[in-house]
Design brief:
- The protein has three helices and five strands, in the order αααβββββ.
- It is of the alpha+beta class.
- It has one domain.
- A five-stranded mixed beta sheet has the order 3-2-1-5-4.
- The longest helix has 6 residues.
- The chain is elongated, with a radius of gyration of 14 Å.
Length: 100
């Protein structure tokens, strides 16, 4: 899995998936999953980002991933939570466009 990589389309660096990912990520050509970031409060008064994938590219169900606690959510590569996907399957998280 890539360490601290943004989804290719999120940064405009479309080749990030091939040039900057780990061997497993590059070899699988994992798809992009659109998600929405939700800023949530912790019990201690801090905050964390939750990234909600509405439709997983592997199982078509919804999944939630952590997005860090910084000022902006961290998208990047995640392993799929579904049990129907092949072992080690994943996707690149990309922010969904807000409807206008």
């Amino acid at each position: 899995m890539s360490a601290k990589k943004n989804a290719p389309a999120a940064t405009g660096a479309h080749n990030d998936q091939q040039a900057g990912g780990s061997e497993a990520t590059v070899a699988t050509g994992d798809p992009i999953a659109l998600c929405r970031a939700k800023d949530t409060r912790t019990i201690g008064g801090g905050h964390v980002w939750l990234l909600v994938v509405r439709r997983c590219p592997h199982c078509r169900r919804s999944h939630t991933h952590g997005g860090g606690s910084g000022d902006e959510p961290f998208y990047g590569h995640r392993t799929a939570h579904c049990t129907t996907a092949r072992p080690g399957a994943g996707y690149w998280l990309q922010p969904a466009e807000e409807p206008q």
